[in-house]
Amino acid sequence: MKINQIDVHRLRMPLKSPFETSFGRLTYKDFLVVSVHSEDLIGYGESASLPFPIYNEETTGTVSYMLKEFLIPKLFSIDQIDHPEEVSKAFEPIRRNNMAKATLEGAVWDLYSKRKGISLAKALGGYKREIEVGVSIGIEPTVEEVLEKVERFIYEGYKKIKVKIKPGFDIEPIRAIRERFGQTVNLMADANSAYTLDHMHVLKELDQYNLLMIEQPLAHDDIIDHSLVQEQLNTPICLDESIHSVEDARKAIELGSCKIINIKTGRVGGLMEAKRIHDFCKSKNIPVWCGGMLEAGIGRAHNIALTSLDNFMIPGDTSASDRYWDLDIVVPAVILSSPGKLEVPDYPGIGYEINEEAFNRYVVERETFTNEKVVF
Ligand SMILES: O=C(O)CCC(=O)C1=CC=C[C@@H](O)[C@@H]1C(=O)O
Ligand SMILES: [Mg+2]
After folding, report:
1. φ and ψ at residue 301, rounded to 5 degrees
2. What is the CA radius of gyration of the chain?
3. Which one of 136, 243, 290 would you pick to mutate in the ligand 1 pocket, going by the greatest count of ligand atoms within 8 A of its CB?
């Protein structure tokens, strides 16, 4: 494939309701969509970045800069692309900036699978026709408001309920959910690095609530201290922010720092690395699931395709479009095919078309790059 044009669009989409975690409160998503053009085909990728450097060191501004100054020129320097793996290899000399890399590499994966006439899921080696999905609930002002959201999502059939916790807002909401909805709810907690080893007593108290997992209790860049937590808890520890590569996954598993890994394509630099982590975890009998970054429909479509791989054994955070958006940028919108399930599209590429009317409503900036420009 010869890529002759790349467009970078910046979009701003208001969330239906604020989403709060231990590190901040979001009321809108400011993100990028890149389109890569080759002859008559277009591939799409979506940046997972948040508007502020609170989940990792990247923001939509840094992703935009890295794309325009380094990654797009680097991609244009590849004369013919036979497989997206060549893109992640070409990006290797550029340090970190994983969400920027993943945005562009994901678009090339969409283009590649369209060129092959197969779904992105099949191109990745996934064969599930339907995936089970869960939903993530942010920190709400009161426990009662958490319970209201849990009730709504149980009613919609979501197969896993993730609630956010932080010191001072942990035991009470978890206990209230168990008291109200019993033990049958697949319940997990995401701490987003809000705890330290000084909170071990709180984490051990959570052990009694039969949680599926406790996600990322300690620092975003820690692996070793998580092993001290895991050895004292029966509840599986799941790592999210700490895992940026298959090497990180290897170290975490060897140290016993986790029993589950949350894979996010943006966090690990792209679908190729996400697949490497999936395959490595499968070889170590460590189940994985697909996390979310409040994506719009293009990002959701990529996540659905990734989740079709067989070691995605635990429902992910890829909820339907209406979890966050009144109007999504894809048609059809991502909707549950049955309670708590999403169909894996069997059309070439990501399997969703762009909703031009919505897309143009949310676009705030657009820039086109052709490969006549000086390469990196
Ligand atoms: O996309 C979704 O629905 C999941 C959202 C979610 O839980 C998160 C998004 C971004 C950062 C975190 O707050 C959190 C996570 O860590 O998984
Ligand atoms: Mg998380």
Report:
1. -65, -40
2. 20
3. 136
Who contacts 286 (Cβ-Cβ below 8 Å, separation ≥6)? 249, 253, 258, 259, 260, 261
* Residue 115 CA, ligand 2 centroid: distance in Å: 34
Between CA 361 and CA 355 the distance in angstroms is 10
Laid out side by side, the sheet with 187-190 consists of: 135-137, 161-164, 187-190, 214-215, 237-239, 260-263, 288-290
Give, as one character, the DSSP assignment of residue 211: -
Residue ranges of domains in the chain, CATH in brackets: 5-117+356-370 (3.30.390.10), 122-353 (3.20.20.120)
Which residues, 6 or more positions from 147, have their beta carbon under 8 angstroms from its beta carbon? 176, 177, 180
Q: Which residue, judged by its Cα, is nearest atom 10 of ligand 1?
A: 293
Q: What is the pLDDT of residues 261-307, one digit of tens each?
A: 999 999 999 999 999 999 999 999 999 999 999 999 999 999 999 99
CA distances from 230 to 61, 174, 197, 238 (A): 36, 19, 11, 9
Instruction: Please tell me whether 231 is known to bind a ligand.
Output: no
Q: What's the 277 CA to ligand 1 centre distance in angstroms?
A: 19
Dihedral sign, CA of 239, 173, 57, 264? positive
Q: Which residue has the tokens 């053009």?
A: 37
Q: Residue 265 in 3-state DSSP?
A: helix
- And the tokens for 77? 């320097």
* pLDDT tens figures, 126-169: 999 999 999 999 989 999 999 999 999 999 999 999 999 999 99
Report the pocket of ligand 1 as residue ranges, CB < 6 Å.
21, 55, 136, 190, 192, 240, 291-294, 317, 319
